[in-house]
Here is the input.
Amino acid sequence: MTKLIFRTLFPVILAILLFSCTKDEVKNIPKVSTEGISLDIRHFEQGLLAMDTTNIEQGIAKLAADYPLFFNGIYLPRILPVLQDPKVFSQFVKAPSVRSLLDSCSMITSNFSKEREGFKKAFAFYKHYMPNRRIPKIVTFTSEYTLGNFTYEDSLVGVGLDFFLGQGHSGYNLDFFPNYIQRTMEREYIVSKTIKTLANDLVGPPAGSKLIDFMVTNGKVLYILDHLLPREQDSIKLEYTQEQVAWCNNNEKSIWAFLLDEELLYSTKQKEFKKYIDHSPNSPGMPEMAPGRTANYIGWKIIEAYMNRFPTTSFEELLNLKDAQAILTKSKYKPKR
Here is the structure.
């Protein structure tokens, strides 16, 4: 086995300098305007909280009228189907734990101006890169920790606010939400995670079952996310700490060499490479500082290399490129260090 050398983090002062550069200084960010970007953002949790619990059937009818697609097409039949029974719905909406959760989530949306502005900027870039696609409606909701963000066709994006109540929230069971996951269940991640969900829907599933297929697919997602939120911190988009981002930037070549040396790139055994593409506290075999999903990080760099070689490729064309091996070959990807 080839001996791999993983570098330690830069000294603190260099790390600070690394993150002090503005995105505009290192990226060719197009000038886009939010004028004309109209967002339809609704807050379902506030509708639930405002229900007249003495007349449940009337309250249900109002929710159905106010949120026809979400309530009738998604919330009742798919998220919490048990609530299709009005008696159960009544018990649910009156339960102290549910009322407390609704209160907590409503505190977020009572002043949603920062998130609204973040979404508006993201969709301005969305229309710039994909002008023929329509902007979906956004619905915030709670589901008692059942579902986070989701998309429904091209018409709706859901934001599960009970997944953004902050690390240490009383409802976050460590068995389901370990600390490395809870760290990103903060309000500052709402826009990025929502746009990432939209990007996942745009890209679709991998065309094959090899690690390289997953890497390139997830790399596309990160590439699109990066372009729709070009001024957001990489740590937010990658869901890493800044130290982990710096470690990946400093060890790109060694991560790539590790994947090759361990013969993982063309493996179809997901048990062997799952932690390199899915949420995990670490990347097995790499130093302790290495976060999970390091293969996705390399996938992002492969897509960047491809788009740099073929700069006239539109987002729609990128989405239609399904052959991961062809993308890798044509990208002539070479890690920086």
Q: What stands out?
A: The longest strand covers residues 137-141. Residues 10-20 have pLDDT under 50 and may be disordered.
